[in-house]
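[#protein-structures] MJ: dropping ATP phosphoribosyltransferase here for a structure pass
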Amino acid sequence: MTRPIIFAIPKGRVLDEALPLLARAGIEPEAEFYKESSRALRFATNVEGLSIIRVRAFDVATFVAHGAAQIGIVGSDVIAEFGYSELYAPVDLDIGHCRLSVAEPVDAAPEELSAASHVRVATKYPHLTRAYYERQGIQAECVKLNGAMELAPSLGLSRRIVDLVSSGATLKANGLVETATIMEISARLIVNRAAMKMRAAELVPMVERFRAAVETTKDKSDAA
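AK: finished. structure tokens for ATP phosphoribosyltransferase:
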């Protein structure tokens, strides 16, 4: 019996933007998926043999990299942070746009990074943060946080943070300001490399449907 294809998608804002793309690619989750009261994490779809799991963004990459899911949607920040060699990212979905940035208190005294040899940073992205500062010849001590990053400077945990920024409203509300951009981010379609070879007959057409869905979206945007 052929095992089902598992499609991992992230919770939150990216999910809201991904649903129209899923529809254009011919994938529609079951009704239970849309119920706010639902505690289920795995859902059937209108495509025979295809199920969707809804998990945290960082977990999408883990599920797909280890073959528990065969395909998924995740931000390019997650791909870069984990660097999984098992992942293939064939399509930029052109959704989930934001940036990974350094932020500090708006009223902080200026500090010359060129004269610093060590900085302390609160972040969910220790790998990308260390790499960013290493390129400047600076050693970064990363304090790993999974949320409420904006509290770190005001509570004395670190002078600066590295986090995702979209509008910048959350930073402003917490007395912080962007001081540098590490990378621009968008959501990508990812596929497990082994699955792409072993189950090409199922996965390649699916990848192509997403590629076509993105192109259709761009064409409509250009026409508008």
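MJ: nice. The chain has a mean pLDDT of 91.
AK: one more thing. The two ends are 47 Å apart (CA to CA).
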